[in-house]
Amino acid sequence: MTEAPSTTEIWLPVVGYEGLYSVSSLGTVRSEARTVQLSNGFTRNLPTRILSAAPNGDGYPTVNLSFPGQPSRTLYVHDLVLAAFVGPKPNGQEARHLNDSKSDCRLSNLAYGTRSDNQRDAVRNGRNHLARRTRCHRGHEFSPGNVRRYPSRPTVRVCMACDADRQNRAKEAHQ
């Protein structure tokens, strides 16, 4: 039996911004309640506030975080969730959205992996344009009888009709 994904929201401090910001297992970022010193010497009490995540040019949710008196930094929400709940990103790894939805920053949808892992996710989720093709560039159908796969490159489909045409042209050129 499959369990439903947890909807319990767990909050942890944002790595590097402890005491200022927290991130939840559901991909929400908030600023923590705190007292700040204003430039005129007065203090101001800031309440806890949920931050609005804005998609960047590629569609990934981002938030602006800052230390008092310093310029803000724009950070990916998925990176904040993974750093807080999983740990630092291993060398050669990147954040993966397991369902390929850029806006879904829930911990249950995120993992570290290689670029190849990310590409396999896209193929599995039907988001890779090459894997979705039903015909080769010359219009031959990618049917089981017309596709060859090489053991060294199992994800590459070779059109056998095009391959036969190419071999025939090569034979004619050498005669």
UniProtKB/TrEMBL annotation:
Residue ranges occupied by any NUMOD4 domain in the UniProt entry: 9-66
SUPFAM superfamilies, sorted: His-Me finger endonucleases
InterPro entries, A to Z: His-Me_finger_sf, HNH_nuc, NUMOD4
GO molecular function, one term: hydrolase activity, acting on ester bonds
Domain HNH nuclease: 76-120
Taxonomic superkingdom: Bacteria
Protein name per the record: NUMOD4 motif protein
Originating species: Mycolicibacterium conceptionense
Lineage of producing organism: Bacteria, Bacillati, Actinomycetota, Actinomycetes, Mycobacteriales
